[in-house]
Amino acid sequence: MDREKTCCFTGHRPDKLPWGEDETDPRCLRLKDSIARAVEDAYVSGIRHYISGMARGGDLYFAEAVLTLREAEGDLALECARPCETQADSWPAAEKGRYQSILDRCDFETLVQHSYDRFCMIRRNRYMVDHSGLLIALYNGIPKGGTFQTLAYAMKKGLTIHTIDLEDFL
User: Fold this and answer.
1) Shortest CA distance to 102 belongs to which of 61, 131, 135, 163?
2) Which of 1, 32, 72, 137 has the smallest CB count inside 10 Å?
3) Mean per-residue pLDDT, 29-56
4) CB-based contact 53:124 (threshold 8 Å)
5) What is the pLDDT of residues 66-125, one digit of tens each?
6) What is the 3-state secondary structure (H, E, C) of 79-145?
7) pLDDT (0 to 100) of residue 68
8) Model pTM score
């Protein structure tokens, strides 16, 4: 895998999105369009490998945008980087189905570790950054949490960062 042709994503889960789990909300639809445009822009710039951390919310929106672009272009790959085997075990049934559907259609699946521990998400995030040249970040501007930590790590590692400001969708 060529790091310079690889893009990963970080973003918020539904509890930090203003519309929560209501993906029919016009703001959510605009956000999904914005993510799709960012993925397409990355593709035009030469990115061919995309890594999703498979969390609820932004990560799944990103993975679905990549799968849609793959249907149109064909010459790109989606990697699903799972922090542990039990990532989706406690999710609502519909979200588990969505998660499994994405896994079934991805090109690569990376399991960072078998069992959950309090560091597995950080390890997953670092794996993604360490294997990418570009990070697309859906960020609310609050300097705490996993998205902030992933952004900070990506900056330290010198990645190109495309930020989608959640404030634009309030």
Assistant:
1) 61
2) 72
3) 98
4) yes
5) 999 999 999 999 999 999 999 999 999 999 999 999 999 999 999 999 999 999 999 999
6) EEEECCCCCCCCCCHHHHHHHHHHHHHCCEEEECCCCCCCCHHHHHHHHHHHCCCEEEEEECCCCCC
7) 98
8) 0.97
**Domain-wise residue ranges, the chain:** 3-169
CB atoms within 10 A of CB 96: 13
Q: Look-up: residue for tokens 């998400």?
A: 121
Q: Are strands 108-111 and 134-139 parallel, antiparallel or unpaired?
A: unpaired
| 52, two tokens | 């999703």
The CATH topology of domain 3-169 is Rossmann fold (3.40.50)
How large a percentage of the chain has pLDDT more than 90?
Answer: 99
DSSP string, 53-79: ---TTHHHHHHHHHHHHHHHH-S-EEE
Q: Are 83 and 112 in contact (CB under 8 A)?
A: yes
